[in-house]
Design a protein that fits this description.
With 875 residues, the protein is of the alpha+beta class. 36% of the residues lie in helices and 15% in strands. A hairpin with a 4-residue loop joins strand 1 and strand 2. Helix 9 packs across helix 16.
Length: 875
Amino acid sequence: MIRTFRSAAVRAAFWTLLAFATCGFATSAFAADEAAPKWKAILGDKSKTLEGMLTVHKNDEKVFFELTPGDYSSEYIVLISISKGIGVEPLYGGMSWGFGDDWVWQFRKIGDRVMVVRKNVRFKAKAGTPEAGAVSRAYSDSVLFSLPAGEKGPKGGDLVDVTSIFMSDLPQIQEVLKGFAFSGAKSTWADVKTFPDNVELEVAATYASSGTEEFDTVPDSRGVTLNVHYSVSKVPSTDYKPRVADDRVGYFMTAVKDFTDDGRKDDFIRYVNRWNLQKADPSKEKSPPKKPIVFWVENTVPFQYRKTVADGIAEWNKAFEQAGFLNAIEVRQQPESADWDPEDVNYNTFRWITSNAGFAMGPSRVNPYSGQILDADIIFDADFLRSWKMEFETLTPQSIAAMTGGDLDSRPEANDPNRYDPRRATASSHSFYRAEFARQLAFGGAALAAVAADPKVREAEMEKLIQQGLKEVVMHEVGHTLGLRHNFKASKYRTLEAANDPNAPTEVLTASVMDYTPVNISPEGVPQGQYYQTALGPYDLWAIEYGYREFPSNEKEGLTKIAARSGEAELLFSTDEDTLGVDPDPDSNRFDFGKDPVAFAERRLQIARQTIPTIVDRLVEEGDDYSDARKAFNVLLSQQGTSCYFVSRYVGGFETSRSHKGDANGKPPIQPVDVKTQRDALAFLERTILADEPFQFPKEVYPYLGVSRWSHWGNSAARSKELPLHDTILNFQDRVFAQLLSPITLTRIHDGELQVKPDQDYLTTAELIDRLTKATFTEVLENKFEGKEFTAREPAVSSLRRNLQRKYVERLGNLALGRAGAPEDCVTIAYAQLDGLKTKIDEAKKNEKLDAYTKAHLLETGKTIERILDAKIAL
């Protein structure tokens, strides 16, 4: 019921009171707004507060950290991953993105600003000493960001907008994507999560360009988007005890320079990188750990490979058991319902990706103060198991050099072997590993085709080969995540006969799964063992014992006792920086196998001879093109060439040892390879790579060595439809010449002459060059032309030999002219060899029965040598 006011005075009073009331409400509301905390306006109505290690506030566009005094006193490890890639090296989904020391950050408040500081973790001295003061003045931290922090958050902490930190090119991806720039306007937050021990942030980061660059895996390069994941956790404060490294045992290391004057010979303190594994019951010889290392097999792994992957991970429990731990590693299958991120620092994963990259990688993230491993994620690309690749259709000097150790004439600066730098990924070793592993699978498949006529038998054996190869790769990558480096001497553990003994079958083919081993294939009629190693070797057990065994007392003495076994034949160790093309030790190779390099090469050549005649019938299915035959031919030829190259490293080689003084069975740090071994190696090369016979393949095969004719994105047709046989063979031959006549090899041999007693037999540079000349110009020097008729189709010097001789004269000429940088004695020997060779050529070319090719070749070669000799005189 509405009451009416009859009196005008009453009505006037009512409206006056109403007006005052309304004004009062408005004034109160305005005052309330004026008194509201500023964080409300800063964060906005849509912000969410996430509680955890740090208090995080997030709205649609920005992320804020609310920092308290306790947060300022802490240090944080920041780990970066590519959670969603673009299929371009090295921007693959699952890739750990780190270079240098793992990042340690600190937030420092100065006035109304917060500095984000990356700590310098490499230098220290004992607190309170004069040296500590000197260190603090000599080395500084790096200030990465300066952010305003003048307002308080809901909990009373400093409200800091950290959006500009993560919405930027913090990972320096622009160094990989040349011509691209991070676009903040096109980038968004993919996810932000907080937990009691960590904060996980993910940015859908878009990099923009003018669009001139094209990628097969990106629809439009004007906007390339990948997800970058940041995992932030506190530097752990635990009872972890760092373990001192030893150069006889191959661990990744954390090196700190400590200037404390405490009598040490070296300022560096080196810790092995390892997990914080401690016995639950230290009184027992073998005990489960307090906290096991847990690996999750991601649900992206195909069903048919999950057991093999799990078995490969769990295989390392055998090494830990010998070191005193029961079930140190647990393997769990990621459930389909899992809501955690593989990039989360709390989860170690084995991830299966499909980036068309064909590689596996096992990085780990480490506390740079102590060497404690905090997190590990293995990524395995599905293409790793695919053997037939387009790159095998053509073999180039560059690809041959990559197969055989790289540059032979210079010593490149070795990058820190403890860290993989994705910004330099084009030179990374895993690029080589993926190509060579695929080549080994292809070689195995071709060899099986030759010995197994039944397609079903061949398919079953190929599946066995793949499963064994997969397990070996898994074990290898898990070894990296446990802290272990490569060991490229492990493949010298057994003879080929022992590795394939049917009366004593073995899963252990090499001393360590940390080597790069080729597929173990026997020729037809020879016993066949396992294709790949499926169990740990003795070196693996020894290395884990050094890194993880607990010592109730006197750890230093216990570790010294373990490391002193380094001289035992199965514990020899060499790694990446010992395996460059210029390195002296021929036992340190990637993808060699067996104690005897000549025996290994002989088998590879025998397999090529047996297999090449069958590749068209066995490898090309009815209705298919012939490209598989072409690829198989090149793969077989490459195995023939690379195995010969391994043999060439023994000529002028020096054995190296990491054993220390007093180690049982320890050898000197460096000594020449046994002279008989060197001469045997040289004799093998003379009758194989420097001869015609190993390259005489059935002529009926050549017309069917076709190339793939598909030409579209992701699959380019080969430029050369014909087979460049001469060039390919010469490339392998010249690689051997490059090794034997490298100025580094010649200098090494020449210096060695001073290092052995005069009455001790030794392979000199004079003998080496003389034998190479005789092996290359046998027809001329032994006058094999007399009493014979020759034609262009049956020449006195074959086309392969003519190519070989031209290349040898070219290299010997550079040597004689002093262009190679070899010792002067080698220069004069080369000059003398050319002078004598010129005389013999002049005699040989007088033979009227020589064919046109040989006549022209001898004429041209003689003139070339004459010009070299004249140039030398002029100089």
